[in-house]
Amino acid sequence: MHKTVIKIGGSNLKNMEDLIRIPKIIKSYREPVVLVVSAFYGVTDRLEKAVNDGQLTGRLPDGLRKMHEEALLQLVPEGEKRAVYFQNLSGCIIELEKLLQSGHKQEAPTANRIISFGERLSARVIQAVLAENGVQCQLALPEKIGLLSNRRFFQGSILLKKSAQNLQQVLQPQTTYVVPGFYAVSEKGETILLGRGGSDYSAACLAYCTDADYLDIWKDVAGYLSGDPKNIPGVKKIDRLSYLEAAELSYFGARILHPRTIRPLVSKKIKVRLLNPEKYLKTGKREPATLISNKTTKSAEIIKSVTASDDIALLKLKGSGVGIKKGILAEVTNAFDKAQLNIRSVVTSQTAIHFVFSRSDARIAKRIVDNLHRNMDFDTEIDDDIAWIAAVGQGINQKEGIAGRIFSSLARAGINVQQIVLGASEVAVYFVVKRHLAKHAAQIIHKEIFHKN
After folding, report:
1. Which domains are seen in the chain, by residue range?
2. Full DSSP string of 257-309
């Protein structure tokens, strides 16, 4: 099958210059690839608003038609082929209009299909641009190639073994394919979104299904860094990360890869190369900014990166013995699962159970628990004035003194740590502070580890 699966995201699909360089990137591989694409920049946001706001329904299809047709007009020569591309694009827009005008657009199956149209449209344009630049390629829609998901709308998980069987029967190794990311289909044929940023995840699943050697993620970033350069001075580039390190950094807030990207790659040891298109165009070399693989490497500092996120909230269940009463944790987590809420973390004691959720999910979670606790003896409380900080690096739990340095530096800066979790991951330690202290806490730790002298 294909040796390389490539993913190009929306940040590299902002303008005509971005589209022009895609054929150059694909041709540099000198062999067939599977290309997974996101929607044009900002389109998914507009589709989500149209699902929730009736006033946008009428204007949106015309705006998207103009945006994508303009790309074809500028990048595809006039002729019979361009007419076919326009016809395919028009058919896609007409279907979107019908869905938006239906009375079911806020129902999960219809909403998922509507929001997937950003990728459906961009993939058609990019396939046309590649074909007109001498790349022999075909459009491969998830519903046509059998990229299957469970029926968890908005947050689907791809069925890897079944999808691999389907793809290996359909995809030909001598052909380059353009696949819209972000969605798959259920076994009933329903469109299932894979979560925001899910094109990374779908590309990783395609790499698994095609037995690829590499997943190449093209992003306008310098690779993984020792901290967020917007908030922390003197950050360093990280040349290599293990699967675990990359997964933890993504989970705790480093917005380079979707948090679920790594998992499909591990069993087949598929390497991830982060590549910058600007750097490639300047040098002509495809040198990864960061390489992610199954190999573990320890840095001199042990910690490789410090990351922070304030998109969390704490749901507290408090009561005498709440942490040890039989069945409470199971009943609560089952209720969260039925509501399709993702628990980010959970910490228990005899008198409290603390759940960490994304901020948008915390209020929903509290309502669910409040309905349950009528038959249970505990109180509930939300604390959304928090953020978490994570320090990530191979050996962090084996090297003596690392945790002591982190928390001593915070104490000297007068920063109170509300909660600490150490040992749950072999490569990460994380802790919770007040929201307004998050940036300063990350700066303090980074300075302590990387710029002590």
Report:
1. 4-218 (3.40.1160.10), 306-450 (3.30.2130.10)
2. S-TTSSHHHHTTT-EEEEE-HHHHHHH-----SEEEES-----TTS--EEEEE
